[in-house]
Amino acid sequence: MSDESGNPSTASGGKSKSAKEPKEKKPRNVDGLKAANEKRRAALAEKKAEVAAKKEADLRAEYEKQYETLKNQIGTARVMPYKISSRFEVANAIQHAKFGLGFVTSASGDRIEVAFVEGVKPLVHNRG
Asked: Which value, to the nearest 10 degrees, does the dihedral of the CA atoms of residues 5, 9, 13, 14 take?
């Protein structure tokens, strides 16, 4: 038995079991998706900030340890005021107007590297 289109029909006259009706799509909860995405971004940003803060704290602790070691080795008996025109050598203790007490760790030409409590800073010297 077949219907007018030539397709075989079932005995009950209904649709065949193999032909499925398309499912009705549910509307997406766009606001919910946006909120979840925003929450994930906030959590990621918070995690990145925590990691950066930990790295900074570890680096600061390392600088402080290096500074204290140099302070004990070099001492503070002969601290020279920092001036661009002065010449400094490795193991000199200097007093900088902005950075405070520091210790020369490297010197070459007109550049020096000085270890301060907040980190190593490049400075110029021997000019003038």
From this structure: -90
